[in-house]
Amino acid sequence: MKLATLRTGATTTAARLDGEVYTEIEGFPDLGSLLGQENWQQLAAGAAGPKHQAGTVALATVVPAPSKVLCVGLNYKSHIQEMGRDLPTHPTMFAKFADTLTGPNDAVEAVAEDPELDWEGELVVVIGKTAYKVSEEQAGDYIAGYSVANDISMRGWQFRTKEWLQGKIWAASTPVGPVMVTPDEFDPAAATLRTTVNGEVMQEHSVGDLLFTPTHLVSYLSTILPLRPGDIILTGTPGGVGRARNPQVYLQAGDVVEVTIDGIGTLNTPIVEPVKQPARQPVAGAARQL
């Protein structure tokens, strides 16, 4: 199955995609709430709610409010080498927050504070039931499905310190979607990831080249803390990012980034000018600060 979260007016709803038609899964405002049900597969398969032709309804990020967004920083040999690092013996992890997520066709604002805006196309793992200290052999049973992400990174801020977090968690900067595909219809080892900027291919790589596989990551992370239904794992990006190019290439307002994974779909992300925030007004009667 292919499942998504639709925007329907002022609300959202979980939906199943069949061909070019979305069917609402009534009673569930998003895919995360659906995955919280033990029988979510049966509920999704049996849904018969209102239908929408693809292209006539907007898509939200696939899981709008996961309890955790966990990310792998270096997981393809080509990307590790282009960034000048040694191959890791364990996954390099960081985290995001739900505020960083945005829809698969939403615009992302350029950042006035950092001109070094970069792309990172990634496979996403979506958790389907609580996993805690599960083995790699068991881990596949806890994966609800797979999606696509672009870990848009503010490189100037990322490399201000040895820790990457501040360059990875800008608001509404991480599109995820368009759908989640269940494991019976998608094999990561057989898929290709492709990122283009203004139609030019920047990344094209087999997802099967992941150093740490989805099942390894689920097992590894569940050793640390429980993974809950709807949690997502960004599995890392292959070579071809803008920072590693010579000369370096960064995203600017007017650019369009597309990330495609065969069998899942495409993120289409226009980069737009940052919205100017209103100037902060001094508080009346406040003492002058020296």
From TrEMBL:
InterPro entries assigned to the protein according to its UniProt record, in alphabetical order: FAH (IPR051121), Fumarylacetoacetase-like_C (IPR011234), Fumarylacetoacetase_C_sf (IPR036663)
Top-level taxonomic group: Bacteria
Pfam families: FAA_hydrolase
Molecular functions (GO terms): hydrolase activity; isomerase activity; metal ion binding
Name recorded for this polypeptide: FAA hydrolase family protein
Domain Fumarylacetoacetase-like C-terminal: 68-271
Keyword terms of this UniProt record: Hydrolase, Metal-binding
Stated family: Belongs to the FAH family.
GO biological process: carboxylic acid metabolic process
